[in-house]
Each structure stands twice: as C-alpha cells, then as structure tokens.
Amino acid sequence: MSLHGSDRRDELPSGTAGGNGAAANMRLRLNPDKEHKPEGYEDMELDFSPNIFTSLERYLPPSMLAVPRVDKAKFMRDILLKYLPLGERNRAQKHKEYRQKIIANYQPRHRELYSMNPATFFVPTFLKAINDNTEKSFRSIISEPAPGIFVFDIFKPDFCGLLLSEIENFEKWVTETKFRIMRPNTMNKYGAVLDDFGLETMLDKLMEGFIRPLSKVFFTEVGGSTLDSHHGFVVEYGKDRDVDLGFHVDDSEVTLNACLGKQFSGGELFFRGIRCEKHVNTGSHSEEIFDYCHVPGRAVLHRGRHRHGARATTSGHRVNLLLWCRSSVFRELKRYQKDFSSWCGECNRAKKERQNSTIAATRLVSLYVMQMFHARVLSVMYKHVLIHLLPTFVISLDWLLANCSQPSTKGTILLNYFKYRGTVSIFS
C-alpha cells in the first residue's frame, strides 16, 4: 500500500511533533527532497517496514526533518495508520504477535546469517559489480537470455549451506513444538517465510543494498528505484514436498529467485511474457517463451508481472530463496494509470498497432490527396476528365472508411481529407 505518492498532498493527523503541536496542519511534500539523507529505522519497534519510514522521510515538511528520530517515526506512523483500515490494522497486529512468539522461542543455529555480511554471503564478482555501481559493471556479470530475465551468480556455496541448515533447524523446531506456521503463499504447501523467524532485517539490507541498485537500472518502469518493502521466503520441491508450481504472476514489482540446492532433476522455470492485470490471461507469443534451469548459487531476476511457473522436480530435493521486492510509490501511481505499454507486452502490441494504423491511414489519405491534385491540374487542361475521376475518388474514399476497424483511424482519414480538400479542392 502506498502512502506517500508523489501526486498526493495529505493533511497530517492533528497532534504534536516534538511535543509542541506545531506540525498539526502541515502537509507532506508534493515531491521528495532528494538532497536529504534519511535516517535508518531498522533498530526500532515499528508497525511497518523500516524501509517505508526511510522512504517517507524524504516527503516530510522541512521543519520536520530536524526533529529527533523518535518523533519523526511517531509522526510518520500516524500518517500510515490513517490510511490503514481497522481490519488491516488488526491483521497486522496479529501477524506482529505471531512473529514475536516465534522469535522469542526459536533458537537459531547460525546467528551469523541474521546480519548482513557481504564478504561472507556473496561471490566476489557480484560484490565487485555492486560496489562499482554502474550499468557496465552490472552487465559484466549478468546475462539476459530472454528479454527482461537477468541471470547471475550471487551466493557462495558456504552461505547456501548455512541457510539450508538454518531452514532444516527451523522445520525441526516446528515439528517438535507442533507450532503452526504460515506458508509463503497460497500456492506452496511447503517452505517457510524467512521474515517470520528473524531474517527480516538481513533481507531488507539484501533488497536495499544489492537488489535495488540492479532494479534501478533494469526495471525503472516498474518502480525498480523505489523498492521499499519485501516478502522473503524459501520454497521446497521434491519427494514429500511440492512437486511443481502452476502458471502465475508474483505479488511484487521485482522478484529475486536464487537456487540454494540441493541435488535435483527437473524443476525448470518457464516464462510466458509480461502482462498487466487486464491482459494477464492472454496468450503468449513465440518470442516470449523461455525456460530456465536452476543452478545452486545462481539467481534469476525478473519483473513480478512476468508470467511463469515451475515444472515438476522429478528427483532429489530443490530449495529456492525468493525475495519479492515491492514499491509502494509505484503501486500508488499505478492506480491512476491506464496505459502500461512501457512494460506490458500486450499493451505494447496494441499501442504499436494503433500507431501503424494511423501511419497507414495518413499515407493513404496523402495518396488520395495527390489524386485530387492531379485531377485539379487535369481539369484545367481537360475539364471533361474531372467528370470521370470524381466518382472513382469518392468510391475509393468510401471503401477506405468502410474497411477501417479503428474509430481513431477513420477520424484521421476524414480530418486529413477535409484538411486537404480546403487547399487542393477538385470541386472549385
């Protein structure tokens, strides 16, 4: 949910900021202060993702930027709660209590996983590319086997092994305590939400420091530069686990899908084109069809609206880390848009067809205008010729209008016809 869209000027809730009540009638900025460096909120007990507070801080009025962090957090929390329905607040509170109960009772096996350690987690090539932070450095380690699908090595084998071990430990704890956990989504019956047992902060840093820079370059049209929240989880496929995954789109703007292991056969991802909500069930075109084979330690990065599924894992056991990255700014702006041709394959095709129809209609009208001009010249020389040419032109124009499927194209034809008729008229 977006609560700080660039087109909104929200009245802030009445109350105090810093105890003086001076901010009671202040408004959020229309545009973010890009020069302001926001504070971090990861260490605070909050009802929303710390990244949302960091993003929202840039929209605060100038007088609020200098107040203590705790006052800014309270101020922004009041704004966020203003837009959250009561039912959502109750669900959010229950989920918070659910997480707190797990974290209070579960004993991690590898505590080093719970804080970001780039040198330990990532392969050197990936880390160097991120540190260089240029499109050239990113493309030096990334392949794009199909449009919008980016593949690269990301995790060291040791990191994959530690995370697999931690997941096994968590599943063992769940079995022993008979604790009922929430699964990652409605499609997977196995797997676990990593955010729920303490890995949320580490995954926030993974998104903010490593995935967002890539998304800013490769997915700008879907909010890649404004990713501010995530849903992190693992899925498991194989014997006594999920077998495959049906055709779907993710609830994300950008998805990171990294294979952790183990030994397995099958399980290929199949991609079938990017679609907006209106066109999600339309057919695929040959250039949109692509299959991807998982390799442990390697990741695939794609738009959440890129339709895909997973084929059956025929043997062994496969575990993947998924990070659904979301942009509240993009989601808010999307509510007011109707044209998604910058990223939806079907919208883009429809736009090109309209453009081609308009160009074709303009060319045809120009052709008939030339006929009109020639008829005018001939009529001066041989007035009797006009009598024979005029019916042909009228019949041709009538046929052209009758065979146009696009109302906008018909309008273009008539507009150009009457425009040119005024300057090169065969009736004068």
Automatic annotation (TrEMBL):
The keyword Oxidoreductase applies. Keywords: Dioxygenase, Iron, Metal-binding, Oxidoreductase, Vitamin C. Residues 1-38 are annotated as: Disordered. The keyword Iron applies. InterPro entries: Oxoglu/Fe-dep_dioxygenase_dom (IPR005123), Pro_4_hyd_alph (IPR006620). Residues 228-327 form the Fe2OG dioxygenase domain. Its cofactor is L-ascorbate. Residues 1-12 have a biased composition (Basic and acidic residues). PROSITE patterns: FE2OG_OXY (PS51471). Transmembrane segments: none annotated. GO terms for molecular function: dioxygenase activity; L-ascorbic acid binding; metal ion binding. SMART domains: P4Hc (SM00702). It holds the Pfam family OGFOD2-like. PANTHER family: 2-OXOGLUTARATE AND IRON-DEPENDENT OXYGENASE DOMAIN-CONTAINING PROTEIN 2. This is Fe2OG dioxygenase domain-containing protein.
